[in-house]
Design a protein that fits this description.
The complex is a heterodimer. By secondary structure, chain A is an all-beta fold. Chain A contains no helices and eleven strands. In chain A, strands 2, 4, 5, 6, 9, 10 and 11 form a seven-stranded mixed β-sheet that branches. Chain A is globular. Classes of the chains: A mainly beta, B mainly beta. Chains A and B meet through strand 4, strand 5 and strand 10 of A and strand 5, strand 6, strand 10 and strand 11 of B.
Chain lengths: 115, 112
């Protein structure tokens, strides 16, 4: 079990550029989550996949954000036309159950700095 | 709605002191409750969890008891170590939900 893997770990980009983050969940976990965390705050839910289906999206996920999980394994989160307010850590997590007792396992996060 | 409220930090303790970090929640139905820990520059790691009322989660000397009557899940440790310095997050998930709700985190610094 190699854990949830995210890359790149750090990304500095100019405002207006597009960025893409990749997440490889724990193998055999069919549920995958993206969260965003800003300094001094807890993680905020962005979106959730069960296999390849995107089942929930937060209103935080503006139309500049898109997430995919094409084969039900790895996932990508793309941010188009980045803004300074997008600077945050983007966390990916995965799990194998829902509801009571569900435990999600986080990756180490991808730091985005928009300058 | 669903939400988690944690005591605000930062908290600074001397090594071997007793730790309590308060967490209360609001949820529809019967949630599962969690404590996650985040070390500097890293993602969140599960510390402990409890899935029903009166359950006690424990790990690495940390404990928390699911109190339905007070809607609380306070984190405790009898004797903290310098290596416990981190940010601690309380979280919940509803029984029928897929979304975790996190508190804002409590920063703990343990000094020798």
């Amino acid at each position: 079990d190699t854990g949830v893997s995210q890359n790149p770990r750090h990304k500095i980009t100019k405002r207006g550029q597009n960025v893409t983050f990749r997440c490889d969940p724990i193998s055999e976990h069919n549920r995958l989550y993206w969260y965003r965390q800003t300094l001094g705050q807890g993680p905020e839910f962005l979106t959730y996949f069960q296999n390849e289906a995107q089942l929930e999206k937060s209103r935080l996920l503006s139309d500049r954000f898109s997430a995919e999980r094409p084969k039900g394994s790895f996932s990508t989160l793309e941010i188009q036309r980045t803004e300074q307010g997008d600077s945050a850590m983007y966390l990916c997590a995965s799990s194998s159950r829902t509801g009571s007792g569900n435990t999600i396992y986080f990756g180490e996060g991808s730091w985005l700095t928009v300058v | 709605g669903n939400s988690v409220t944690q005591m605000e930090g930062p908290v600074t303790l001397s090594e071997e002191a007793f730790l309590t970090i308060n967490c209360t929640y609001t949820a529809t139905g019967y949630p599962s409750l969690f404590w996650y820990v985040q070390y500097p520059g890293e993602g969140l790691q599960l510390l402990l969890k409890a899935t029903k009322a009166d359950d006690k989660g424990s790990n690495k000397g940390f404990e928390a008891t699911y109190r339905k009557e007070t809607t609380s899940f306070h984190l405790e440790k009898g004797s903290v170590q310098v290596s416990d310095s981190a940010v601690y997050f309380c979280a919940l998930i509803r029984n029928t939900g897929n979304q975790f709700y996190f508190g804002t985190g409590t920063s703990l610094t343990v000094i020798p």
